[in-house]
C-alpha cells in the first residue's frame, strides 16, 4: 500500500474552468465590477483580491490553476475565430 490516495469530500463537486469563469463573471457583475477587467487583473497578477467573495467566486477560481483558465479562454476564442473564418466565402 504505497499509493497516495486522494480524498474527495462527498459534497465537493469539481467544476470545469469554463463553468467557474461564468460563475465568477456573474458574481463580478452582481457586485458592480467590470468582469473582464477584474478577471484579466487576476489572471495577470494572481492576486485573488481582484475576485470578490460574493457567491464563493474567489474560492472557486482559486481551485483552478491560472494556466487552465487561460487555456480555456484561448480555446473558446480560437473556436469562435475559426467559425467566423469558415462562414466567410
UniProtKB/TrEMBL annotation:
Pfam families: IreB. Signal peptide: none annotated. InterPro entries: IreB (IPR009309). Coiled coil: none annotated. HAMAP family: UPF0297 (MF_01507). Belongs to the UPF0297 family. This is UPF0297 protein SAMN05444392_103114. It comes from Seinonella peptonophila.
Amino acid at each position: 500500500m504505497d499509493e497516495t490516495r486522494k480524498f474527495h469530500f462527498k459534497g465537493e463537486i469539481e467544476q470545469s474552468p469554463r463553468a467557474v469563469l461564468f460563475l465568477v463573471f456573474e458574481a463580478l457583475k452582481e457586485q458592480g465590477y467590470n468582469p473582464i477587467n477584474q478577471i484579466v487583473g487576476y489572471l495577470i497578477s494572481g492576486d485573488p483580491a481582484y475576485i470578490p467573495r460574493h457567491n464563493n467566486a474567489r474560492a472557486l477560481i482559486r481551485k483552478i490553476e491560472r494556466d487552465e483558465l487561460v487555456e480555456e479562454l484561448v480555446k473558446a476564442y480560437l473556436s469562435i475565430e475559426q467559425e467566423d473564418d469558415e462562414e466567410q466565402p
